Amino acid sequence: MEYTAIGRPQIVVTSLNDQVTIQKVLINGGKSKCRVMLRSDLMGSVGGTYFPLKLNYTERWRLVMTEPCRLREVTLFTNLGNASYTIE
User: Fold this and answer.
1) What's the predicted TM-score (pTM) here?
2) Which of 2, 33, 55, 84 allows an S-S link to 75, with CB 3.0 to 4.6 Å?
3) CA-based end-to-end distance of the chain
4) 2-86, which class in CATH?
């Protein structure tokens, strides 16, 4: 895991499938104010994430959180099923 200059956690997602579509990302089981920064949060500025997010094989995308927080669990909801990861 990496952090931005102002302490926001960020994770990099890499597709290891021909194509995967991420429909939603849930942070800490939804029990935290922390969430993925969306493009709409930036009022049209470049950056942020949009859903659905399609990634081809080996494509990467950096998910930046909206505020400094402690990431404990990340769940990706995709067209290929859900995947949950714990972070220590």
Assistant:
1) 0.84
2) 84
3) 10
4) mainly beta
